[in-house]
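The following block was generated as part of the benchmark described in Methods. Ligand: adenosine monophosphate.
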Amino acid sequence: MIDSLIRDVPDFPKPGIIFKDITPLLKDAAGLRQSIEGMAQMVDPESYDLICGIESRGFIFGTALAVHVGKGFIPIRKPGKLPWKTASESYELEYGTDTIEIHLDAADGKRILMVDDLLATGGTMAASLKLVRRVGGDPIACCFAIELGFLEGNKKLDVPCHTLKKY
Ligand code: AMP
């Protein structure tokens, strides 16, 4: 079902990329509920204290999942968005670099489940794992709605990875 609610948009945001558009899934009440319930079953909620979502589509799945399993939520954001003291981490993109930030007191000693919408090359999640560890958190697993398996992003991640739909 989730499969039929993910729309392929060719050449977005640039030529050669097939963008996996999750807006039809978010719009569908049953599809949205099924994806959050599916994520909740992937990792035992007893094994983590907080959920960390990565801006911006990681916020959608991450906060919904946090409410569903009764946990708090911490955001990883693009630079300059978080108001208090931050740690930041830069990582390589195909062209150039990107940076993400987290509040210094976000994760202190807690076990964290990492959430994003999609795993592609793994660069974003690998940097997010580093960032959470730098502020004293213990990432125990990652969970995604979609994985582009042919890019082998999971090889960059040193915690278990779980995905609802792998391409
Ligand atoms: P990566 O760091 O290469 O694993 O890319 C992951 C991030 O980029 C995620 O936050 C995704 O939202 C986004 N992303 C990368 N490739 C795609 C794609 N083909 N369709 C939709 N989002 C993508």
